[in-house]
Amino acid sequence: MKSWILYKDSAAALKPEAYEIKRLIEAGAQKGHEIGVFKPEQFELLVTAQNERSLLVDGSVVPLPDVLLPRMGAGTTYFALSVIRQFERLRVPTFNTSLSTETVRDKLFTHQLLSRAKLPIPKTMLAKFPIDVGLVERALGFPIVVKTLSGTQGSGVFLCETRLHFEDLMELIRATQSNANLIFQEFISDSRGRDVRILVIGGRVVAAMERTSVNDNFKANFSLGGEVKPFKPNRDAEWLALESARLLGLDIAGIDLLFDGEGFKICEANSSPGFEGIEKCCETDIAAEILDFISFRL
CB–CB of 298/93 below 8 Å? Predict the structure, then answer.
């Protein structure tokens, strides 16, 4: 089986953050997947009725793969989305689809879809400059979490402990990038410095871990140095992860949950979840699980 991975850099083996790419290549060699890694800039798209010449790789027409696995997540650009859509137009199965990838890269839209289904999420506001600080305080209170609309591995996420801290951050953003797209969320104090990542593949939970921050950081991401340990989700946590993935159309998903009293709230969904931390602490071969799912679906 020929499988292509769409990644931000085709020289994946040279990138220290490309653990997942390396693992997929290793698992592919064991499972009969001929895996190629490509970056979006290697493709040329032609919109034409003649499908056979509508996708070029490095300027040449080449045989298409059996499957495409986008691995760009929140970093998926408009051009990368167009490449994925072209593969779909040529009837190459993609996991995840362009639609689900585009959906979850927008954190506000993700929460709009989840809230419509009455799933528990932190109260969320879309920023509008100039910021009405009083309105934000009345609606969400402080501390408050400030997020960019797209971001991954904890980037673009800030905690404002006080109104003054929030006002200073908003003034800085207004002065430097007043057109920035931001959302504000209530801070879930029970989850300060810890959260849960649940990995869903093909409509089933394959592994879960609890992440705990170090150095009093309120973010617990493994990529930021957070400690990880296996987590056994109860029925509520498992249902939230599975239902979130289903509603967002994700075949492969990393669903992040926040602790909230005796229950959970959904923090984020990831269309290209990292799994170095979860393979480190759980006895699960995530790369093999992904490839087995793809083979089953084909």
Answer: yes
Query: 114 is written with which tokens?
Result: 């989840």
Q: State which H helix or E strand residue 34 sits in.
A: strand 34-38
Question: Which residues, at least 6 apart from 207, have a Cβ–Cβ distance to it below 8 Å?
Answer: 198, 199, 230, 275, 278, 282, 284, 286
The answer to whether the CB of 249 falls within 8 A of the CB of 97 is: yes
Query: What domains are there in the chain, each with its CATH number?
Result: 2-102 (3.40.50.20), 123-187 (3.30.1490.20), 190-284 (3.30.470.20)
DSSP structural state of residue 265:
E
Q: Give the DSSP letter string of 133-172.
A: HHHHHHHH-SSEEEEESS--TTTTEEEE-SHHHHHHHHHH
Which residue numbers in the chain have pLDDT < 50? 10-14, 16
Is 80 buried (19+), middle (13-18) or exposed (0-12) by CB count in 10 A? buried
H, E, C per residue of 79-136: HHHHHHHHHHHCCCCECCCHHHHHHHCCHHHHHHHHHHCCCCCCCEEECCCCCCHHHH
d(CA 76, CA 99) in angstroms, rounded, equals 12
pLDDT tens track for 127-170 = 888 889 999 999 999 999 999 876 555 567 899 999 999 999 99
pLDDT in tens, 52-79: 678 889 999 889 999 999 999 888 999 9
The amino acid at 12: A
Q: How far apart are CA 128 and CA 136, in angstroms?
A: 11
- Structure token pair of residue 261: 């009293």
Residue type, 291: L
Nearest to 133 by CA among 108, 176, 164, 157: 164
